[in-house]
Design brief:
By secondary structure, the chain is of the alpha+beta class. It is built from nine helices and nine strands. Among the domains are: 52 residues, 2,3-Dihydroxybiphenyl 1,2-Dioxygenase, domain 1; 99 residues, Serine Threonine Protein Phosphatase 5, Tetratricopeptide repeat (Alpha Horseshoe). The mean pLDDT is 92.
Length: 237
Amino acid sequence: MAGEMTVPLLPCASIDVMAEFYGMLGFRTTYSQKLPNPYVTLEREEINLHFFGIHGFKPEDSYGTCLVLVPDTGELFRAFAEGMRAAHGKILVSGIPRMTRPRVRKNSGNMSGFTVIDPGGNWIRIMAMSAKPEDEDAVLDKLAASLRSAVVMGDSHGKHGQAARILDAALERNRGAAGPVELLEALAYRAELAARSDDQVAARKFLASARNITLTDAQRRAAEDALASIDDLAAAL
């Protein structure tokens, strides 16, 4: 039978806060009730999310998560980012709520993915339906390979410290042999990890190192996403 739909039901402390947050991302409230149990349903095109309120719920203790498959993670990320900038003047990169950037996930078949961690502490994992050919067949240098391992720890599992240690070791070993684009991407992500750990001094240090890398026009085009992440993180700091 075709036409089935699965809708996640996720916990939160306040359905009003959830409705406001997802409204910022372009969702509309399709149903809401306060009694007898708080419940809200939200919709954005074909993405449906439902939330139920729990008195005394702590977002930092949440295990709520779901997977959303989309044709283009970059397009949806840009729409979400535009909403965040309009509401906050920046992309939320640390704490709860926050949003990661689209990056290739080697633990998910090299498909691009990003995550929205909402005010309920739920991880909404946005993944591409298929990998791009260049990601499937990519031959990576040592620093780029370590970056993908760090992304698994930092973006998939939320282990910022472990991701930072992977990247620090890789930068120490391979910095001199890495190409400028690979080095820029690694430093940009390392700065983001520092920001997530509330280490603004380290975040600014890595941002400064990334900005000191000289790029050709072709390299700047190849590093477009990393350069955008540097600008977004600088605004957040």
